[in-house]
Amino acid sequence: MYLKKILGGFLVLVSFLATAQNEIVVNTDLGKETISKDIYGHFSEHLGHCIYGGYWVGEDSNIPNTNGIRNDVVDALKEIAIPNLRWPGGCFADEYHWMDGIGSRDERPTMINTHWGGVTEDNSFGTHEFLELCSQLDCEPVICGNLGSGTPQEMSQWVEYLNSGNVSPMTDLRKANGREEPWGVKYWGVGNESWGCGGNMTAQFYADNMRRFSTFTKNYGENRLYKVACGPNVDDYNWMETLMKNGNPGGSFQGISLHYYTVCHTWRQKGSATQFDEKEYFTTMDKTLFMDELLRNHITIMDKYDPRNRVGLIVDEWGNWHDVEPGTNPGFLYQQNTLRDAMVASVNLDLFNKYCRRVKMANIAQTVNVLQAMILTQDGEMVKTPSYYVFKMYKVHHDATLLPSDVTCDNYTYEEESVPAISTTASKAADGKIHITLSNLDPHNSKEVLCEMRGTDKLSFVTGSIVTGDKINSYNDFGKKEEVSLKDFKDVKVNGNSLTVKMPAKSIVMIELN
Ligand code: AHR
Q1: What residues are annotated to the active site?
Q2: CA distance 128 to 179
Q3: Which of 108, 152, 168, 235 could make an SS bond with 216 (beta carbons 3.0 to 4.6 A apart)?
Q4: Among 259, 321, 369, which residue has the most ligand 1 atoms within 8 Å of its CB, making it the best to mutate?
Q5: Beta strand 461-468 pairing with 417-420
Q6: Which residues lie below 8 Å from residue 472, measured CB to CB, with a gap of 6+?
Q7: CB distance 28 to ligand 1 below 6 Å
Q8: pLDDT in tens, 272-311
Q9: Which residue's CA lies nearest to atom 3 of ligand 1?
């Protein structure tokens, strides 16, 4: 009888271990790095209908607005607490002359937006309008200066216009344009993609120019500029090495950028945002996970030249880049956004969190109507995309302490190739609550995930949420019910200091524990 009981217990344990293939050990007592909320930043360029129509409709528009900026878009972005916004580009930044975008709107000169559709830019959205937008969003402005076609004087004067409280020509001009107090802008990009659209420079030529331009961008008052040098294109490790070696890190720049877009096929034919099969879904997951290797390798170079970790890695352009929606202007980069995009968002955010010792900011491209957007608009209508809901879910990690975790998980295999099926982040908030976000990349199989919370005795489940959809290409569109949104999730069992989470296939979940 006694033997039978032991045997029974043994069998239960064996069968439990056989099914518990997904296990995460979270070290709740070993957290030391902060996940900067700036990792959840955004990027908005003068491109297609991101600025015009996306945010800016003008004061006389029928679309409800405050000082020309749409209320619905601001309200939606406030819900995801966007911490910072990068502007005016992108490639546009290196052909933008800021003085064209100040003063009376009727008198502002026009220009041609040569990169994005060759359309005429009337400069009605300029410095004051951007800073008004940031103030409505309650977020930090990140301004990218023009190193490619501008001069050190032009860049220097823009910083003076923004930040100086002294008596000076730029201060007077700002006041004449209706702004008495300096804005105190902290984040400043010294050119964009200078290896490409920003001037086709070599790494050494850029390093020298960046040092020169940076010399003339000054600190005013209490404000200390955080200058972001143009960093590498994807895996250009030579660019990173040259900048870290010869660019005066910590002096001429405090952050260095990295750009990596996930492109399913090729740059010529990227593939549809909505009409894709499992092979393309798998390829997208595989390609987006390359971000792990990129971050690891670039950080290794940064560690070599900056062992004190003074310089931040700023991933200021990332996300999925698909073909434009049929019938739309190819130069406007308007694409739909499905559950696949949501998965790309969660996987990348997990990676930025994982490397948060070095990754101090990231900006998904681009907030409204362009590339992997949070929001799509059509006249007065607005749609929240699946990616939006991931950013909403991940708010719990803003400025929380990263809890180091060890993950053992199944693979998601397609034909002969595999990627890890589970991606995760665990963090502890200032109020002591623990949050775990988990993504199950496998589109067919649900996963039972055992989380062992080392360093704590007893936990209780507070709340949970989930982002999923019926299909990998479920998406939200104008005039129809949302297919993907943020819903309550309760499929969690807590036992002492461990918990079992039952994740549906192709889902992203968040668990809050006390
Ligand atoms: O985000 C679209 C473009 O992609 C940006 O303007 C440029 O920096 C990058 O190549």
Answers
A1: 193, 317
A2: 8
A3: 152
A4: 259
A5: unpaired
A6: 276, 278, 281, 338, 339, 340, 443, 506
A7: no
A8: 999 999 999 999 999 999 999 999 999 999 999 999 999 9
A9: 90
